[in-house]
Amino acid sequence: MLKGIRLATALGVLAVGSVAARAQDMVPVKIGVLNDRSGVYSDISGEGSVVAARMALEDFKPAEHGLKVDIISADHQNKPDVGSAIARQWYDRDGVDLIVDVVTSSVALAVNQVTREKNKVHINSGAGTADLTGSQCTPNTVHWTYDTAALANGTGGAMVKRGGDTWFFVTADYAFGQALQRDTSAVVTKNGGKVIGSVKTPFPNSDFSSFLLQAQSSGAKVIGLANAGGDTINAVKQAAEFGITEGGQALAGLLIFSSDIHSLTPRVAQGLVLTEPFYWDLTDATRSFSDRFAKQFGGKKPTAAQAGVYAGILHYLKAVEALKSAKDGAATVAKMKEIPTDDPLFGKGEVRPDGRKIHNMYLFEVKKPAESKGEWDLYKLLATIPGKEAFRPLNEGGCPLVKG
Fold first, then answer.
1. What angle (nearest 5°) sits at the alpha carbon of residue 62, between those of residues 59 and 67?
2. Eight-class DSSP state of 377
3. Helix (H) or strand (E) holding 32
4. φ and ψ at 187, to 5 degrees?
5. Whole-angstrom Cα distance, residue 262 to residue 269?
6. If we measure between CA atoms, which residue out of 250, 255, 177 comes closest to residue 216?
7. What is the DSSP string of 95-161?
8. DSSP 40-77
9. What is the end-to-end Cα distance of the chain in Å, rounded?
10. How far apart are alpha carbons 141 and 116 in whole angstroms?
């Protein structure tokens, strides 16, 4: 009897030791979701991006691939100094390997530099500035979801081809708005159009009255809104109050997310033309993911930025698994560029040498109220823009990583 007890005890100790050994062998990975959790971009990213990150872990099943992954989150308040301070603390003290999302271009550019300095990884899904893969590109950053160049090629090019050949910009006065106006102006001019004026608005801003009146009085056929989130919502609502589109001018939302249109409703936003890289109702796979997301997030469908968090993490974890380490950020990003991308939300694609993730973009028009079959039935698809046409050519961005 005693021998049996001793044997059982010994086997139990061996089993516990084996489990502990397996746990020690797991590759540790820590992911920080850094975004706007309380301001004008919180609906675009916010807590929904944390939900998307957790869903990526549910689907990847890290333990089955030898990884132990933790997620933390913080609010950068749309302030570059706050964002860079959090990034330094996460990298230096808290052991974070990857920072995702970082909506707000000025914050993204700051985090981009800290990430390079610390040799970690930044996968940006929320910010728009194409400078992240242009003059400010680094070996440590991947720009996943969209950028100002792709938005300009989509909405800007489409509006000119529809006859909107004179433009006036209402532009958020910070890195993103300025980059979006710059890139869209280039596309408008290239397609034979003309920019006849622009006005810069404070960021964030609640009253666009005087700026919209300037745009209205310019006589431009298209008023381009080079802003996002709460600013875009406020501008579109006030444009409707002034009867701008009824007066014959077109309103172009140069960065619109589905959460913005849901807030505005098709009654206010109907006919608005926009470009997005993701929409919940595109395919069976996007619908399935979005239904799961909505069950975890109060019935809300995911935005493109939140979808980018999910897909970016999946690809990152594949690279970490291949390397069996998350320690060297530049090596991890190099592996991400080596492995073709393939996920349920953006399909097959690639990460280019400049860090730009390539996938299709889509030109949409907001449905009329009579066309919409539910509160999230917002868009009708006008055109699919192949990734290689949507994004800036590799040799035109000025990225130091691109040879030749």
1. 165
2. -
3. strand 27-35
4. -70, -45
5. 9
6. 250
7. ---EEEE--SHHHHHHHHHHHHHHT-EEEESS---GGGGTTT--TTEEE-S--HHHHIIIIIHHHHH
8. TTTTTSHHHHHHHHHHHHHHH-GGGGTEEEEEEEEE-T
9. 78
10. 8
Structure tokens at 335: 């592996």
CA quadruple 20, 24, 27, 28: dihedral sign? positive
| Token digits of residue 118 | 């610390």
Enter the tokens of residue 365: 């028009």
Which residue type is seen at 142? V
Question: How many angstroms separate the CA atoms of 93 and 394, rounded?
Answer: 36
Strands (E) in 243-378, as ranges, are 250-253, 273-276, 341-343, 347-351, 357-358, 361-366
What 3-state DSSP class applies to 362? Answer: strand
Mean pLDDT per block of 10 residues along the chain (404 residues) reads 55 50 80 97 97 98 98 98 98 98 97 98 98 98 97 94 96 96 96 97 96 98 95 95 92 94 94 94 98 98 98 98 98 98 97 98 95 97 94 96 85
For the residues of 162-213, what is the DSSP string, one character each?
TT--EEEEEEESSHHHHHHHHHHHHHHHHTT-EEEEEEEE-SS-S--HHHHH
Cite the beta strand spans of 192-309 per DSSP E: 194-201, 222-226, 250-253, 273-276
pTM, full prediction? 0.92
**pLDDT for res 377:** 98
pLDDT at 403: 84
- Strand-pairing partners, residue 142, are 123
| 3 state SS of 243 | coil
Cα–Cα distance for residue pair 96/285, rounded to 1 Å: 30
CA 154 – CA 147 distance, rounded (Å):
11
Determine the pLDDT at residue 12. Answer: 58
The type of residue at 46 is: G
Q: Read off the tokens for 260.
A: 């913005």
